[in-house]
Amino acid sequence: MRGLVYGGPGNRSWTEIADPVITDPRDAVIRVDTVTVCGTDLHILGGDVPAVASGRVLGHEAVGTVVETGSGVSSLAEGDRVLASCISACGICRYCRQGAYGQCLGGGGWILGHLIDGVQSEYARIPYADLSTYKLPEQVSDESAVLLADILPTSYEVGVLNGQVQPGDTVVVVGAGPIGLAAVLTARLYSPAHIVVIDKAEARLQAAKLFGADTTVLAGTQDPLAAVQALTKGLGADVVMEAVGFPETFELCTTLVRPGGRIANIGVHGKPATLHLEDLWIRNVTITTGLVDTSSTPRLLDMLVAGQLDLDHMITHRFGFDDFMQAYDVFADAARSGALKVVVSR
């Protein structure tokens, strides 16, 4: 079969690889039907995630069909259509028992496309399959479901929940990529008074308006601090979410938050950012970080079925498996291609 293989920073190839096999009784093997590329994959290719070894198959977001299960898998059968979560959970360790699956001590957490081969391939092995997959209702399309593998639970848990968005809040999202847009969409569930989105690309700001942003700021042309202060009478935002992963965007967030406000860092950082405690210590600011646990995935799936999550505008480009390299090129050049989320399907 073929897979998207990481060959070191800046190096990737769509090439022949070995078929996956069951190595643990709790494994399942799926035929990958729909898969997507994540901003984290670009961070890996940029050398920001050194734990990823050369030769690793990338990818941690997929919808597929079960083709084989290990003897310890009890809830899945051949032919089941499933969402493969970006987080694997042993279900036994201390963190899994708390629902903090991202910190699994039993060999799970974020391992797909990171510490083990991922799902950007024609078939994939899914560890701890009972707890790391979700059967999909017929009315949920593959394209909608794959967005629940990572970006929706990540934005919701690490951004909205960690940021404690409340009714009437002023919320600022720095970065209007897929994660930032999902943060806008899920923040709307909590009835904030204003959502401000900041980005350098006008096309992404237009997309942010479709997802529910009230105000957009074109970085480099408009002053984000002036815009937020004008909206809040000089106070600052109640919640600021960092959805890029650059030092300068994190540092921008610290200037936009009000005294007593919350900064929720969602972005994947590969370089140090300066924490200006000389300014922040007196302002009662809370800063949170986090890896998604995907404990919210069942709830988000229920909301998707109920029509409470409109994901129609998220996917902008579609490719077949033979065009996987092109899918990466388009996603990586979002400023010119206008790509939000790209999907690759059989």
Task: Note the topology.
Layout: E1 2-6, E2 12-16, E3 28-36, H1 39-45, E4 62-69, E5 81-84, H2 94-97, E6 123-126, H3 129-132, E7 133-135, H4 142-146, H5 151-161, E8 170-174, H6 178-187, E9 194-199, H7 202-211, E10 215-218, H8 224-231, E11 237-242, H9 247-256, E12 257-265, H10 277-280, E13 286-288, H11 297-305, E14 315-320, H12 324-332, H13 334-337, E15 341-345
Parallel strand pairs: 8-9, 8-11, 9-10, 11-12, 12-13, 14-15
Antiparallel strand pairs: 1-2, 3-4, 3-6, 3-15, 4-5, 5-7
InterPro entries: ADH-like_C (IPR013149), ADH-like_N (IPR013154), ADH_Zn_CS (IPR002328), ER (IPR020843), GroES-like_sf (IPR011032), NAD(P)-bd_dom_sf (IPR036291)
Domain Enoyl reductase (ER): 7-344
Organism: Paractinoplanes hotanensis
Description:
The chain has two domains: 2-150 and 294-345, Medium-chain alcohol dehydrogenases, catalytic domain (Quinone Oxidoreductase, Chain A, domain 1); 153-288, Rossmann fold. Helix 5 (151-161) crosses helix 6. The chain contains 13 helices and 15 strands. By secondary structure, it is of the alpha/beta class. The strands form three sheets. Strands 3, 4, 5, 6, 7, 14 and 15 form a seven-stranded mixed β-sheet that branches. A six-stranded parallel β-sheet has the order 10-9-8-11-12-13, sandwiched between helices. It has helices at residues 39-45, 94-97, 129-132, 142-146, 151-161, 178-187, 202-211, 224-231, 247-256, 277-280, 297-305, 324-332, 334-337, and strands at 2-6, 12-16, 28-36, 62-69, 81-84, 123-126, 133-135, 170-174, 194-199, 215-218, 237-242, 257-265, 286-288, 315-320, 341-345. Its cofactor is Zn(2+). Pfam families: ADH_N, ADH_zinc_N.
